[in-house]
């Protein structure tokens, strides 16, 4: 049994955090992030765009020492990512998360991260359901999503990938993490 991790969140600073993020998103293990060939300026620009977008937000997850250990994005699927691909409900929020590659993997770390991300999203009483759209071939994230309560609905075609549209309600999340 691993000790649960305690994380806090802070808004990502596109300029101050770009170098750290660049190393994360260009690593071969982050292939599904689709930024493999990004230059530092590309990462800065992408996250400056997110910072300026009222419907998309990037946060860093910090460990107990305040060190950034993962990236989380949340977005309004009625305005970003999934527009026209499904019928959003009031209270839907979209989510992406990225744990950086490491030479010393910690058992259970990524599951702790997705659990913390979901708990953070559901801290907002307006959020009723989280929606994700990972690449259909990203089997590792499908397993993690299922572990925190996501239920796949169907495959959808996004401009950049074939995705598995999945949903998790507050109740499904509570039941999954209590198990």
TrEMBL record:
InterPro entries: Acyl_CoA_acyltransferase, Acyltransferase_MbtK/IucB-like. Acyltransferase required for the direct transfer of medium- to long-chain fatty acyl moieties from a carrier protein (MbtL) on to the epsilon-amino group of lysine residue in the mycobactin core. Keywords: Acyltransferase, Transferase. This is Lysine N-acyltransferase MbtK. Residues 10-57 form the Acyltransferase MbtK/IucB-like conserved domain. Pathway: Siderophore biosynthesis; mycobactin biosynthesis. Pfam families: Acetyltransf_8. GO terms for molecular function: acyltransferase activity. It comes from the Bacteria.
């Amino acid at each position: 049994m691993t000790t649960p991790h305690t994380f806090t969140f802070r808004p990502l600073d596109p300029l101050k955090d770009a170098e750290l993020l660049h190393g994360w998103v260009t690593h071969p293990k982050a292939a599904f992030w689709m930024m493999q060939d990004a230059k530092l300026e590309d990462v800065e620009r992408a996250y400056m765009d997110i910072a300026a977008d009222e419907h998309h937000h990037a946060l860093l997850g910090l460990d107990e020492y305040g060190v950034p250990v993962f990236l989380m994005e949340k977005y309004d699927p009625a305005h970003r990512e999934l527009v026209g691909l499904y019928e959003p409900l009031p209270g839907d929020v979209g989510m992406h998360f990225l744990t950086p590659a490491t030479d010393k993997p910690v058992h259970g770390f990524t599951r702790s991260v997705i659990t913390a991300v979901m708990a953070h999203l559901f801290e907002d009483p307006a959020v009723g359901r989280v929606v994700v759209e990972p690449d259909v071939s990203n089997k590792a994230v499908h397993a993690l999503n299922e572990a925190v309560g996501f239920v796949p609905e169907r495959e959808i075609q996004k401009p950049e990938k074939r995705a598995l549209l999945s949903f998790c309600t507050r109740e499904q999340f509570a039941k999954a993490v209590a198990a």
